[in-house]
Amino acid sequence: MAMRDICDCHMHILDHRYPLWSGAALNPPDALVGGYTKVRERIGIARCVVAGPSIYGSDNSCSRDAIVSLGIPARATAVLTKDSSNAEISELNKAGFVAARFNCIQGGPWKIEDMAPIARRIAGFGWHVQVYAGPSQIVEMAGILESLPTPIVFEHICRIRDPKGEDADAFATIAKIVERGRAWVKLSSPYLEPDTKGTQSDRFARTVAAFVEAMPERLVWGSDWPHATEKDQPDTVAMFLAFCSFVGVEKILDRILVENPAQLYGFK
Fold first, then answer.
1. Which end is more exposed in the chain, N or C (fewer Cβ atoms within 10 Å of the end residue's Cβ)?
2. Which PANTHER family match (predicted)?
3. Do 194 and 162 contact (CB within 8 A), yes or no?
C-alpha cells in the first residue's frame, strides 16, 4: 500500500522501569519503542497515538516519555483521577496529550461517576474523553456519555460483535452520539471479540462494514500493538492488511487511516 501519513490511533508502550499500579489487571512484558518502530515501518505508519495503559494507573510518565522517543509525530491519552490537578493536566497538554482515557474493562483509579467531572475539567484544554467499554456498558452509560461536554472516542469498536442483532442497542447509542458530531470510533482489536479467533474474522469484517456504512467520516484505525491481552501474539501487519481488505474502498480507507486522524488529533 502506497499511502502517506497513515496514523495508528491506538498503540501502547510498556516498560518495567515505570512502576505498576497496585490495581493493575495485567502485568505484560515490555513493549518498547524499538519494537514498535519495526512494526510501524513495515506498515508505513507515519503518526501515532499512545493510549495510556491501565497498568500504570494515573502515572502517565511512560506515555509522556514515549511521545519524545517515538521519532514521529505523536499524541497520547492520559489516565486521570478526580484528584488530578489543573497544573498536571496543563503539563500533559503541553507534552502532547489530547484525551482522558477510561478503560471500563480493566478498570482504573477512577469511578464511572468521575467521568463527567473530569470531562468538564479537560474540556477547556480541547481534549476529548476516550472510552473502552463493552456493549452492555455503553447502553448503561448512555445518559452520562450523551451529557459530556467533550467529544468522545470509542475504543475497539466497543467490542460490538453483532451491530444489527444482539448489540444493536449499543450500536444505536454510539451512532446517535456520532450523528450529533460528538464522537469517533476506533476500528481495532478483532481478537477482543468473544468467541472469535484469528485476524480474518468474518464477524469483525461485518462489524467493520456496518460502521463504515453508518459513519465513515468518524472512523479511525488502531493497531493495539503490542496486544497485551493476548497470550498468542497476533501478527500486527497481517491484521492491518486484513482490515484494509475489509474496508475495501481506497477513498474510504484513506479517510480512516489519514484524513480522519489528522482532523481528530490535529496532525498537519
1. C
2. BARREL METAL-DEPENDENT HYDROLASE, PUTATIVE (AFU_ORTHOLOGUE AFUA_1G16240)-RELATED
3. no
